[in-house]
Amino acid sequence: MIVRLILHLLLLLLVAPLLLGVITKTKAFFAGRIGAPFLQPYYDLARLWRKECVFSRSTSWVFRAGPVVGLVVPILASLLIPFGALPAPFSFSGDLILFVYLFGLARFFTAAAALDTGSSFEGMGAAREVTFSCLAEPTVLFCLIVLARLADGQLSLNALLGPSLQAAWGPSASSLGLVVVCLMVVLLVENSRIPFDDPNTHLELTMIHEVMVLDHSGPAFGMIMYGAALKLMVMGSLVVRLVFPWQTGNWLLDAGVYLGGLLLLAVLIGVVESIMARLRLVRIPQILIGTTLLSVFALVLVLR
């Protein structure tokens, strides 16, 4: 148990920043540039953690708690979800609800930290972030209900994403395909990726997540960046497990399939960000409502 927990955490903490590097490198390839090295996110984190934090006198402990909660929550959530065919260290009936609302807790503290600065600009970003997340949350819940139905009513992520998933692809391929599409959209929304947000933008009226963290610096901003990478890996693990449901029983081979799937997912995100423009803000709620309807339709298909 202890060994599995340590390996699970090492896999998360060491691999997560690499996904950001792969996305950046893919976008550079499409733009005809060499781009930053794959390990650039590690260098950026090391540089930020060597700096000092600067806090405004108008902020409170809420502003300082935001980055900490944003870093700790993905680590806790990762303990509830399998990494590919590798089972989660902790599992209990109903842990899927805790998994969803752990990220809700992180979102609350991030938005509260932005509001704590007293900046109407950061308040605008927080309002957009919370609005989009509220629209994406039903999609996640309906997708998990579909998986629970296919797992004979079990409410544990280990059971939902366990060996039974491979057998479910035969008779329920259409439902699982819709679930993959819906979760992919939620992945892009929750991680502030194009076409819903641009993590590299500096246009004041279009920023969403980035505007909420403008006043953070040094190690605090490093925790925000690291937490974002961890969140991307944890949520990406859902998509990877659904697309690659095979389980060989060989730990090294299963880990290799999982890591390969994560890298392919990062490349796919880079391709999407390279070939698509950012959507207008008024279109994003329409798409998120559409994914909710798709997830409901997937549930109807498995209830036939």
Q: Could you characterize what this model shows?
A:
With 304 residues, this protein is an all-alpha fold. The protein contains twelve helices and no strands. Helix 5 runs antiparallel to helix 8. The model has no long low-confidence stretch (mean pLDDT 90).
Looking at this protein, list some descriptive labels.
globular; 0% strand; mainly alpha; single chain
Shape: globular
Q: How would you characterize the largest beta sheet?
A: none
Please state roughly what percent of the residues sit in beta strands, choosing from under 5%, 5-15%, 15-25%, 25-35%, 35-45% or over 45%: under 5%
Radius of gyration: 19 Å
Number of helices: 12
**Structural class by helix and strand composition:** mainly alpha
Poorly predicted spans: none
Order of helices and strands: HHHHHHHHHHHH
Total beta-strand segments = 0
Strand and helix map with partners:
Layout: H1 2-30, H2 40-49, H3 61-78, H4 95-116, H5 120-150, H6 157-160, H7 164-168, H8 173-190, H9 209-212, H10 218-243, H11 251-275, H12 283-302
Short description:
It is globular, with a radius of gyration of 19 Å.
